[in-house]
Structures are given as C-alpha cells and as structure tokens.
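Appendix B, example 12.
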Amino acid sequence: MTTSVQTNSPPEVGATLQRMRLARGLTLEDLSRIAGVSKSMLSQIEREKANPTIAITWRLANALGVPIGELLTSAARPVDAIRVLEAHETPTLPGAHAGYVLRILGPMDLAGKYEWYELTLAPGGELASQAHDPGTVEHVTVLHGVVEVEVGEDRRKIKLGATARYAADQDHVLRNSGKAEAKALLVVVHR
C-alpha cells in the first residue's frame, strides 16, 4: 500500500503569478493597471508576504487570461500548441455606467504595444478615452450597427463593415447614437 504525504500549506500563488507576469512581459505596474490591484499588493503577493483573496485571485486570473485554478497550482504547465481562451475566461472591462462592454481579446503580453478588443455599445452608450501616448493609432471596424467616432472637432459615422483609422494621441470617443446595440473590433497600435 502506498501512502502519500499531503501538506496543509496554501499554494504558492506568488511564484506562479510572477512566472506568468514575466512570461507575458508585464511589469507590476502593467498588471496593476489591467487587474485593478495595487502595485504594492502585487509585490507582496509575489514575495509570498500576502495571500490574495478569492476576489483578487479572480481579477489576476482574468487579467492574465488564465483560469483561476492555474494561479493556484505551483507546477509549471507545458505550453499547449493551441491555447483556447473560453468566452468566460476572456477579461472584460465593464462600463455599464457609460453603456459599453470591452472584452480584451489580445494577449496581455502585447498590452502597451498592440491591443485588440471587442467593443459592445448599448444605444446611447459611449467609450470616452483620454489621449494615449504620442503616435498611438486606433482602428475600429463595425461588426453590427453604426458607431460614431469623435476625435477632436471631427465626427464620423462608421457603418457596418467599414473601418475608421485615427490618431488616438488626443481625446476621442466611440459612441452609439442609434437605437440598436452596436458591436465593433477595436485595435490599438502604440508606437
């Protein structure tokens, strides 16, 4: 008869978190911004000085695009040839107060270089953004409905299937002024 020894110590989330963060090329500041967890808390977790709550672990897993269980295992997993991110695993930035939902489709390791999102705008909803870094360009392709793009004093309605390209290094707004939900693919290229 074989017996196995089990320990009652919690999983070492910090080492796993740090490995995943570094594998994606993210700084503590990057992950803090994406996950909505303070940089000091992330540092404490990675140094095993603090254990994250379930809510924080869930936010970190969403930000890294992995199932929550993956953060709770300390063994490095082999890399799959094809990594499928299920719909419920896709990090989402809810902007219900402004009538939008932004699903983060791009991998976190490209954040700050190339980012792509699925943007859903309720009727009257808008995604208002402050100016990004100099040279940043956005591309919006309308998949459903009509999206109005406002950059500075310029406003254009973008219809189904059309793509708008514009400098995003100034304040800009994506708006649904129609009566039906609108959906678009938003690609951000940082230079």
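The chain has two domains: 13-71, 90-189. The chain is about 20% helix and 30% strand.
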